[in-house]
C-alpha cells in the first residue's frame, strides 16, 4: 500500500526546482495525499513567501535556516516538511520518535501542536507536547509512543537526561522555532546539551523572526551546510 505514491513523490521531489516561479499553491508541491488533504481541510491554499522559499528545499532534504517576521507563516514552513520527512522514511506509529520541534515557550508549543493536529489529521503519526505542567513520570510514560514531539528546551532535556528507555536514536528531523527567542531566554546551554543527545545524521530546520549573531551561533552548532532563506513580505 502506498508504494506507488511514495515512488512518484520521490521522483517529483527530485525533479522539483526549489526556485521555480511556478510554486504558488500547496497543490503545486509534491506532498503526500494525507498532508495535501489536511491542508485543504484547514483551508490553506496559497503559499506565503517563507513557505515558498523553505518548503521545497526542506522536501529535498536540505537543512534550512529561515528568517521571516512574526505572522509570515513559519509554522507550516516546518510542519509540512516534518510530516513529509516521516512519510518518505515510511515511518509508522510503532517507530518511536521521528521528529522533535523545540519552542521557547509553552504557549508557542501549544500553538504549534494545534496546527500540527489540524494539518496532520489524516496521518497515523502520534504527536505530543512536552512542556511540563504534568509530573515528569506522567509525561515520561507517553514519550515512548510519540512520533512527533513539540517541546520546550528545559523540559525536553530533563527527559533526555532522566527518562530511562526513551530512545531518540532514529530521529529524522529537528526543528528549532523562534531561535532568536530561544537564545534571548537563555536556553543556549539547554539546547546545546539537547542536541548532544540526538543522532548526527538528521535533517534540521531553524527559524527565527530576526537574523542575529546568536542565531547564527546556534545554527553553526546544529545545522549542516544550511540553505539560508528569508522573506520580508507584508503579512
Ligand atoms: P509565524 O510563525 O511566522 O509568526 P504563523 O505560522 O504563526 O506565523 O502564521 C501566522 C498566521 O498566518 C496564522 O494565523 C496562520 O494560520 C496563517 N497562515 C500561515 N500560512 C498561511 C497560508 N499559506 N495561507 C493562509 N494563512 C496562513
Ligand atoms: Mg511562529
Automatic annotation (TrEMBL):
Please, which domain of life does this record's source organism belong to?
A: Eukaryota
**A GO molecular-function term, please?**
hydrolase activity
Which regions form coiled coils?
Answer: none
- List cellular component terms (GO): nucleolus
Domain spans labelled Helicase ATP-binding = 55-229
The processes (GO biological process) annotated in the record are: rRNA processing
**Chief subcellular site?**
nucleus
What UniProt keywords are attached to this protein's entry? ATP-binding, Helicase, Hydrolase, Nucleotide-binding, Nucleus, Ribosome biogenesis, RNA-binding, rRNA processing
Subcellular locations according to the entry: Nucleus, Nucleolus
Its UniProt domain note says:
The Q motif is unique to and characteristic of the DEAD box family of RNA helicases and controls ATP binding and hydrolysis.
Describe the task this protein carries out.
Answer: RNA helicase.
Please give the family membership noted in the entry.
Answer: Belongs to the DEAD box helicase family.
Name of the protein: ATP-dependent RNA helicase
Organism source for this protein? Answer: Triangularia verruculosa
Q: Which residues of the full protein are shown?
A: 39 to 273 of 822
Amino acid at each position: 500500500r502506498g508504494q506507488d505514491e511514495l515512488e512518484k513523490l520521490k521522483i517529483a521531489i527530485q525533479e522539483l526546482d526549489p526556485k521555480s516561479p511556478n510554486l504558488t499553491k500547496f497543490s503545486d508541491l509534491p506532498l503526500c495525499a494525507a498532508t495535501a488533504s489536511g491542508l485543504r481541510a484547514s483551508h490553506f491554499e496559497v503559499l506565503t513567501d517563507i513557505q515558498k522559499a523553505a518548503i521545497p528545499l526542506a522536501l529535498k532534504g536540505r537543512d534550512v535556516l529561515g528568517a521571516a517576521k512574526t505572522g509570515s507563516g513559519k509554522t507550516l514552513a516546518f510542519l509540512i516538511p516534518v510530516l513529509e520527512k516521516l512519510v518518505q522514511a515510511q515511518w509508522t506509529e510503532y517507530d518511536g520518535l521521528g521528529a522533535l520541534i523545540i519552542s521557547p515557550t509553552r504557549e508557542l508549543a501549544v500553538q504549534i501542536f494545534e496546527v500540527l493536529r489540524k494539518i496532520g489529521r489524516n496521518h497515523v503519526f502520534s504527536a505530543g507536547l512536552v512542556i511540563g505542567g504534568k509530573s515528569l513520570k506522567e509525561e515520561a510514560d507517553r514519550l515512548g509512543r510519540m512520533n512527533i514531539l513539540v517541546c520546550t528546551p528545559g523540559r525536553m532535556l530533563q527527559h533526555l537526561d532522566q527518562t530511562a528507555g526513551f530512545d531518540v536514536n532514529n530521529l529524522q528531523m529537528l526543528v528549532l522555532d523562534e531561535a532568536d527567542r530561544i537564545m534571548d531566554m537563555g536556553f543556549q546551554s539547554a539546547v546545546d546539551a539537547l542536541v548532544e543527545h540526538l543522532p548526527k545524521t538528521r535533517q534540521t530546520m531553524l527559524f527565527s523572526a530576526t537574523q542575529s549573531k546568536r542565531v547564527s551561533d546556534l545554527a553553526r552548532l546544529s545545522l549542516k551546510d544550511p540553505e539560508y532563506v528569508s522573506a520580508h513580505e507584508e503579512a
